[in-house]
């Protein structure tokens, strides 16, 4: 209390007030305010301590792997380790490469300012190639006039450089950087977008030259569509290199590994091929598929796996009647639910959208259904907002969905109830009480289809064409389906039996056959971490006692001709 009174007097001191806003005193002002809250000091010390422990654990995880002698045959694997990459990927790649690809030389692409990642790469004794050295020369083969004509978001969407969809990439990069799903291209924003395009083209050309002169055989990457990742992946495909994409799943010990080609570049990583779909259809019966989906649902919406649990904090096991009461829903009326996306993330990455972007899709959908009278509507805010707000303070705890409501619905919803991202109601329970799912390409569309519910999508790229979602091709068709559902006109909707069967096939392929379990990787939650918000809260260690899947994984990764995506066949 005494300390607070001291700082109060300081705040009231005219001389101190006059100092505020002056650049040379900004640090002093921040420091004084920081000291006012001793709890912040404690949190800072705690974070430093936990970080030091995690680095120590990481160092220990590298010891056994680094003892392996690499047999060099001139072939190289390049790890793309740019800004923002969770260092856990380095752990896993290090294990995979040094235990499975022991005859390959291992190199990593990084940024000079990527200090932490570079420390970890050095601990793993991996040679670092700095992207700044590759891009030190500007290599842009376009004139200013080529991009001067780009005036609107649609103009940028259609802009390409060779086969590189650079306009979409520039927009996606800008949206993610601003944490916003809506822009109006003015002079300032156009300048930013044009600079992104110029830099991406330069990066693309530089990497074409780099891949030509290097002996890179395989590339390991996580992102392929935004920032420098897009230029690298596009150049790699141009040079017909083996581009291998890694993504974590809801399970802590498994990954989805896709070999990227020109044909599947815009396909969602959490999808399967038509060939895989038909394989499952021919080999498994409906009962087996149904039992698997029920079991998988229970696991994913429980506390079994840390990475899925982060979206399910403080969820209660409520009955349907309790949910009806909480949400004030009439159980005798139809319920439609709109599952929002993260409106600013990976826009334009997958397939094609019938609306300009996620922001416009959500706004127009809310505007339409809010006027419908025969259906009760729910808007489910994306649960990932829970942990994204904790990681990225730029978001300031205000979901983009609220901005959408203000713009398209005058800030007020008449026939739509909002289910906040912090709700204690499980999404699984919400899906059970709903009759219709509306999304662009979210996982909810697949999940609700397995429950025998109709699904309307506003985009392709993930599960369209498999016979379990209604995929309108135009805005008019989409809006007509929304109205038809409200009027109980099922003439344009899919047969429910087909919906259930086809979705169960896809579900089994995606969650059982496609994920690659890494039994030789031991997943350990970092010490003193109460919650897991991201992969940064894990360490991945090599378990010498388990060598299953090693040869199988090697064959899968080296077989560039076969683009089969079912790792676990039966």
Q: Give the beta-strand count.
A: 14
State the fourth-level CATH superfamily of the domain at 274-513. Glycogen Phosphorylase B
Structural class: alpha/beta
> What is Rg?
25 Å
Counting DSSP H or I runs of 4 or more residues, the number of helices is 24
* Percentage beta strand: 5-15%
Helix content: 40-55%
CATH architect. name of the domain at 274-513: 3-Layer(aba) Sandwich
Mean pLDDT: 82
* Stretches with pLDDT under 50, minimum 5 residues: 1-24, 389-395
Q: State the CATH class of the domain at 274-513.
A: Alpha Beta
Strand order of the largest sheet: 3-2-1-4-5-6-12
CATH topology of the domain at 274-513, by name, is Rossmann fold
How far the N terminus sits from the C terminus, by CA atoms, comes to 67 Å
- Please summarize the sheet with the most strands: 7 strands, mixed
Shape: globular
Write the layout of secondary structure elements.
Elements: H1 2-12, H2 14-19, H3 26-36, H4 38-66, E1 76-80, H5 88-100, E2 105-110, H6 115-123, E3 127-130, H7 131-134, H8 144-148, H9 153-157, H10 166-178, H11 187-213, E4 216-221, H12 227-238, E5 242-248, E6 254-260, H13 274-283, H14 286-300, H15 306-309, H16 320-327, E7 334-339, H17 358-369, E8 375-380, H18 385-391, H19 400-408, E9 416-419, H20 427-433, E10 436-439, H21 443-450, E11 454-457, H22 475-486, H23 496-513, E12 516-517, E13 521-525, E14 538-542, H24 550-558
């Amino acid at each position: 209390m005494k300390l607070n009174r001291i700082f109060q007097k300081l705040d009231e001191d005219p001389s101190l007030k006059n100092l505020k806003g002056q650049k040379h005193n900004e640090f002093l002002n921040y420091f004084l305010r920081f000291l006012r809250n001793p709890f912040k000091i404690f949190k800072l010390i705690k974070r430093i301590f936990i970080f030091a422990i995690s680095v120590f654990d990481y160092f220990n995880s590298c010891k056994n792997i680094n003892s392996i002698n690499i047999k060099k045959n001139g072939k190289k694997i390049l790890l793309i380790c740019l800004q923002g990459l969770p260092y856990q990927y380095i752990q896993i790649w290090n294990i995979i490469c040094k235990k499975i690809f022991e005859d390959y030389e291992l190199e990593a692409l990084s940024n000079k300012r990527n200090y932490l990642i570079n420390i970890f790469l050095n601990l793993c004794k991996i040679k670092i190639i700095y992207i700044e050295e590759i891009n030190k020369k500007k290599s842009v083969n376009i004139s200013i006039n080529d991009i001067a004509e780009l005036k609107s978001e649609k103009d940028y969407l259609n802009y390409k450089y060779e086969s590189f969809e650079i306009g979409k990439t520039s927009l996606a990069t800008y949206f993610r950087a601003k944490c916003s799903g809506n822009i109006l291209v003015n002079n300032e924003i156009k300048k930013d977008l044009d600079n992104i395009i110029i830099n991406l083209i330069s990066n693309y050309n530089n990497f074409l030259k780099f891949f030509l002169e290097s002996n890179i055989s395989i590339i390991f990457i996580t992102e392929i569509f935004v920032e420098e990742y897009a230029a690298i992946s596009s150049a790699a495909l141009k040079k017909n290199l083996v581009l291998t994409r890694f993504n974590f799943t809801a399970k802590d010990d498994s990954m989805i590994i896709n070999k990227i080609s020109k044909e599947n570049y815009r396909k969602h990583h959490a999808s399967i091929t038509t060939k895989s779909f038909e394989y499952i259809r021919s080999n498994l019966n409906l009962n087996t598929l149904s039992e698997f989906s029920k079991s998988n649902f229970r696991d994913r919406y429980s506390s079994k796996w840390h990475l899925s649990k982060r979206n399910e904090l403080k969820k209660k096991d409520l009955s349907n009647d309790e949910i009806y009461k909480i949400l004030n829903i009439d159980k005798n009326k139809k319920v439609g639910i709109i599952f929002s996306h993260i409106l600013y993330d990976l826009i334009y990455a997958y397939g094609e959208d019938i609306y300009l972007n996620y922001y416009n899709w959500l706004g127009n959908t809310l505007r339409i259904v809010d006027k419908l009278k025969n259906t009760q509507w729910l808007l489910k805010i994306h649960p990932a907002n829970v942990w994204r707000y904790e990681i990225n303070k730029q978001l300031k705890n205000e979901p983009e969905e609220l901005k959408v409501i203000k713009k398209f619905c005058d800030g007020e919803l008449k026939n739509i109830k909002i289910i906040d991202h912090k709700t204690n109601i499980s999404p699984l329970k919400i899906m059970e009480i709903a009759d219709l799912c509306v999304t662009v390409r979210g996982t909810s569309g697949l999940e609700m289809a397995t429950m025998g519910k109709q699904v309307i999508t506003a985009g392709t790229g993930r599960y369209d064409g498999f016979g379990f979602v209604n995929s309108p091709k135009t805005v008019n068709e989409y809006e007509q389906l929304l109205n038809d559902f409200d009027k109980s006109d099922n003439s344009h909707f899919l047969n429910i039996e087909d919906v259930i069967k086809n979705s169960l096939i896809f579900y089994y392929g995606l969650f059982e056959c496609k994920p690659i379990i890494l039994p030789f990787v031991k997943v350990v939650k970092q010490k003193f971490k109460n919650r897991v918000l991201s992969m940064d809260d894990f360490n991945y260690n090599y378990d010498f006692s388990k060598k299953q899947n090693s040869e199988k994984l090697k064959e899968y990764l080296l077989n560039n001709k076969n683009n089969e995506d079912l790792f676990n066949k039966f």
